[in-house]
Design a protein that fits this description.
Double-stranded beta-helix; seven-stranded antiparallel sheet; rod-shaped; 8 helices; 23% strand; six-stranded antiparallel sheet; 2 domains; single chain; Helix Hairpins; alpha+beta; 19 strands
Length: 466
Amino acid sequence: MPLVLLKVAKWLLSKGAVLLLAGGVAVCVFALWIFIQKSYSSEGERVTELASLQERASELYAKLELAHSRLIEVGEDLEETRRRLEAAQSVIEYFDGILNRIERFITMSAAERAESEARLEEAKKQRDSLASKRKELLSEQAELRVDRIAFSEEARSLESRIGELELESSDFLEHLEESWTRLKPYLIVSLASIILVPIAWKLFAFYLWAPLLTLAGPIRLLKHDIPAPSLSSQGVSVRVQLQQENRLWVKESYLQASDESLKRRTRFLLNWSFPATCLAAGLTEMVEFSQEDEGEGSVTVSPQRKAELEVALLEVPEGSQVVVRPSCIAGLVSRGLEQVKISRRWRLFHPQAWLTFQFRYFIFEGPCALIVSGVRGVRFETLDTKVDKGRRSNQIATIGFTPNLAYGVVRAETFWTYFRGFNPLFDDVFRGRGVFLCQEISEEETTGAARFWGNFWSSVLKVLGV
């Protein structure tokens, strides 16, 4: 019961942590979205109001200019009216003066007197008309001055509001616009590079780089013939029989069942001679089984975490050798008291090594047995130069081969399969008399970042021969 409660608590804690993290990310993303939306909305309102106020300010300045021009015209008209009014008043004073009236009755004829009286009446009418016009002009002048003051006050208020709106511009949108302006050329170049560079590289690699392999011969790690290894059993699980003085090292994730009579202990590294390789290949914290008493014990090996994997038991007899990628090893069986001999061969100066970027090979010497794993099973093929001139295999699927085979690489069969990522640039090709092992399926399909980092890590392991 306490164990069940502990598992429930652990499950709740893990789910709570995930939900808390997801909730926090969701809240942050939503807050950022609200901030951007409000910034965009307020900026739009600010720009709209600013445009409206600037338009109104332009109309006010036009009215102010018109009022100012009209005031100048009214002032000139007032001055002209004043001069004409003074002239009319002078005429009236002249004809209406006392001296004029005496002379008019004594010396003037009736026709002259009538003409003088007519001119006097005309001057009075003109004076009255000019006085009325002057009054209208003064009224208009006063109204224009009032309007000009009102327009000036409104324009001052608009200018103040326009200044405030210009200062209230969104820094976020300004920075966004500036960033886009500065980065736009680089983004276009980067986008074009992301699209075109991989295409150009694959064209170069397929049609120029890969054909260089024709200048380099295959790699042969062993010149003479050796006894051929054999595949004793394979499937979802294999049963390994351990006799006295036999030892088995198996990954914890591949251990399914074992006899109680076997002695167990933990081996932190399969071989301390190359710790980095063991760490990279996952050959760490392995379980070691040994049969110390007379009789037999058995261990069942089966993948416990990946349902697509199957295992096979490869028997390497006395005097035989096999090259195997350590990352494909699930377990190792020693058929004697001594530990399994593992040697390394470097090919730093071989042209093919530099073209394929594989410089190191691990050779396991018999007598021993290897438990290898492969996706959907392991295929065991026997070659003989009298029958086969060469056998092509997907490079990703290759598990191992006998070192007396001539190991080379050839370009992928079609460009389209290489371009679409269905096949690597090179396929492995084996020639001679011996055996090689490969997976039934090269790998599980991955996409996106998983494919990139998976390919990167596989490339690093390939350089190290892992």
